[in-house]
Design goal:
With 501 residues, the chain is mainly beta. It has one domain: Porin (Beta Barrel). It has helices at 21-28, 36-40, 147-154, 170-181, 183-193, 392-404, and strands spanning 69-85, 88-92, 95-109, 117-131, 134-142, 197-199, 209-211, 218-241, 245-267, 277-300, 305-312, 315-329, 345-346, 350-354, 357-366, 370-380, 385-387, 407-419, 422-431, 444-454, 458-473, 484-500. The strands form 2 sheets. It has a 14-stranded antiparallel β-barrel. The chain has a two-stranded antiparallel sheet with strand order 6-7. Helix 3 (147-154) crosses helix 5 (183-193) and helix 4 (170-181) packs antiparallel against helix 5.
């Protein structure tokens, strides 16, 4: 009698298709979220400071604070995905609410009147620098069926390597093949017992495989739900010298949690095809930590002009992926349901090194009435690296990263005008595509605005920011090369409360 698994089985193998340039960009990118004031001005704070989220751009801004204060921010993330795939158009419009920022700063003013060092400030802050929550519904026709995914892995694999041993349970074989032979053989096994592919002949030495699906065009539907975040906990120290120069440094501790739940169905095979419908579901879970540091300065050139410069070191991430799978078709093995989400593939830890970033800033301050600010950043994404570099698979991916990715330039403009206790704010941001050809991910453009009110001992700020970027989404990392085209826009509404003490 077949036994069922009620426990989670661990698997160690090389996950050769999980990490690529898309994953590197996902975990290396930081968005303009933060406090409401920071968002309302599109993050153009490199020469200004005085805002906790601005310390991500330039830690020297910590010594611009004049008072001890604490800030907490809540954001509503609104997504809009207009999707085109296989001649069909769909749309998803999810929304999420979260506490995205919390922190505080302590200001220690010098008690020595003759000292040029006017004050020292220390800040701690927690920011969600990227929110991964999203929902995609991709539907359309394609000439590339899911059989291509399995054939890509199976070709060249001896048939005897993906068959059951005497008395072996199907779920044990699935895990054992993955741990002993690798991810490619495991997917070939899944395709065979899922009924999608068959060997050209039943000899153990056979290395050629054929599809069991007959089609010219198939209908494909993919529901992809992602959740998670990239957060940054920052400890910043800075000082002011001679009321002309601000210096600061930050230690940044990153945390990543990312889940992706894919439910895929395929049908509309040719009349007479033994397979009439296929389902193939995957759940990916990634988590890890990272570390980076920031250095910066802000100089007061004149009463009106400020200049700033900052350096953000590479971020060193250490991550781990877990994968769960299940498959079904008309020709699937009778025991295929024992390969399900109770079985967890746990892959070896890997590293991502995101590139350093340099930012230059200018700001004009018009007394106490208003200001204009400009930031220009440079980050060479072709220098991103996956590791360990001794792994041949990662070496190949790193070569692809060097060839596919390019230097990203970013522009941020922000302004603020004060009317008594009210502050009106606006901003614009542009970020170039990280890809050399600009096809997979387009340029990003965004606008923002907001309002604030100063009660004296506390402040309340509201911001609305919106940005748009065209992207592509592949249904699978192998086999099906046709991507879905996504016109993506994000609208964030953030409310921040600040209290002085």
């Amino acid at each position: 009698m077949k036994r069922s698994l009620t426990f989670i089985t661990l698997l160690l193998c090389t996950f050769v298709t999980a990490q690529n340039s898309i994953d590197v960009l996902r975990f290396s990118s930081e968005n303009t979220i933060g406090t409401a004031r920071f968002q309302a001005m599109s993050g153009a704070f490199g020469a200004l400071g005085g805002d906790l989220s601005a310390l991500n751009a330039n830690p020297a801004g910590v010594s611009v604070f004049n008072y001890n204060q604490g800030v907490v921010s809540v954001s509503h993330y609104g997504r809009s995905n207009e999707i085109s795939y296989g001649g069909n158009a769909t749309g998803t419009y999810p929304g999420y609410l979260d506490i995205n920022q919390a922190g505080g700063v302590l200001v220690f003013k010098s008690s020595e009147p003759s000292s040029e060092w006017g004050k020292i400030a220390v800040a701690v802050n927690y920011d969600i620098v990227n929110n991964f929550n999203n929902e995609l519904s991709i539907s359309g026709q394609n000439t590339e069926g899911i059989d291509n995914y399995f054939l890509n892995f199976a070709q060249g694999v001896p048939f005897g390597d993906i068959t059951l041993r005497d008395g072996e349970f199907i779920e044990d074989a699935y895990l054992d093949i993955g741990s002993e032979q690798g991810f490619a053989d495991q997917q070939a096994f899944l395709g065979y017992f899922g009924g999608i592919i068959d060997p050209e002949n039943m000899e153990d030495s056979n290395t050629n495989y054929l599809s069991n699906a007959n089609y010219s065009n198939v209908n494909q539907n993919l529901s992809r739900i992602t959740q998670g975040y990239n957060s940054k906990f920052t400890v910043t120290v800075g000082s002011q010298y001679a009321e002309k120069l601000h210096l600061g440094a930050s230690l940044n501790f990153h945390s990543i949690v990312y889940t992706r739940n894919d439910e895929f169905t395929e049908n509309n095979y040719d009349v007479g095809s033994e397979i009439t419908q296929t389902t193939f579901d995957n759940r990916l879970f990634s988590e890890g930590t990272g570390f980076s540091l920031n250095l910066g300065l802000i100089a007061k050139v004149t009463d009106a002009l400020r200049v700033g410069a900052s350096y953000q070191s590479p971020t060193w991430y250490r991550l781990q992926d877990n994968l769960q799978q299940r498959i079904s078709s008309d020709l699937a093995d009778a025991d295929i349901n024992f390969i399900n989400f109770d079985l967890v593939n746990v892959f070896p830890r890997y590293t991502i090194k995101s590139p350093a970033k340099v930012t230059g800033s200018l700001a004009l301050v018009f007394g106490k009435n208003g200001l204009l600010s400009f930031d220009y950043g440079i980050q060479d994404m072709s220098q991103a690296r996956l590791g360990p570099t001794s792994d041949a698979n990662f070496s190949t991916i790193n070569d692809d990263i060097s060839n596919e990715l390019t230097t990203v330039t970013s522009l941020r403009l922000g302004g603020e005008y004060r009317i008594n206790r009210f502050s009106l704010r606006g901003g614009y941001r542009f970020e170039g595509s990280p890809y050399e050809d600009g096809n997979l991910t387009g340029d990003l453009e965004g606008i923002s605005g907001g309002i604030g009110y100063d009660f004296g001992a506390s402040k309340l700020d509201l911001a609305i920011s919106r940005y748009e970027r065209d992207t592509t989404e592949r249904l699978f990392d192998s086999g099906i090369t046709t991507p879905a085209l996504i016109d993506n826009s994000n609208t964030n509404v953030t409310l921040s409360y600040t209290t002085k003490f």
